[in-house]
Fold:
Amino acid sequence: MAALSSFALPRAVHVDKAPRPLRSLARAVGRNGLQSRMGIARLRDVPWSAPSMLNIEHLRKQAKLYLRWHREQYYPVAARIRTVLPRYSRLIDREVLAQPFRLSDAQELVARTVGFESWEALRRGSHFVTHTRTGSRAMTTLVAAEPQLYVRDIVASCEFYSRMLGFSVAFTYGEPPFYAQVFRDGARLNLRQVDAPVLDAIRRATEQLLTASITLEDAKPLFVEFQQAGVEFVQPLRTEPWGARTFIVRDPDGNVLLFAGRGE
Structure:
């Protein structure tokens, strides 16, 4: 995990109403989103068990939808693009959305998602896609997990994670903000504002209930960086019986984060 060159709080994007991509997908949102606010829209794939929908015309529409989402700066599609298309693999979400993305790119994204190397290969094999995979299970790839941390103040938390832990702010949502995401390299943490503690503070402190685990190559350089920044440690750097080197920090809201790297 490389250190950032500056600890200044990055400029966050504030949204006072549901952005267009979220509004257009409101019907696709389940009950697991933000209660009484707005759900978190999810990219949906058609399962292999639905042959009537999995045809070339449907896939063309899906490609156009990906293209529209990219134009509208819809962050969840950036993760899909980065994961499926190799030329975007080293870019963060903001950089993916800033890159040119044409219909041919969106079609390649769809083709690779359903197991073809290119859109032309998918067109030649569309009959195969529609008819021979009927009844087989969906081919699902888990891309990443993003822990959700409960905090009292989104702005204050973004400042802490930026200034003290070297994260950057991917986005904030609401006016005033009640939801945000911070990231550093491949680690992403979602921040959700709550009015009261979700976990019992005494139990979390005495049992060291972890909020998130973050892995990296070598924990020592980051531990030294956090020491110099004045971060509060629940556990200093140590070597575990299984060989990993770990340390644990606590944020101002009591969230406990484990950082683990390889042993010496």
About this structure: The beta strands are 148-151, 168-174, 177-184, 187-193, 212-215, 233-239, 245-250, 256-261. DSSP finds ten helices and eight strands in the chain. The two ends are 17 Å apart (CA to CA). The chain has a mean pLDDT of 76.
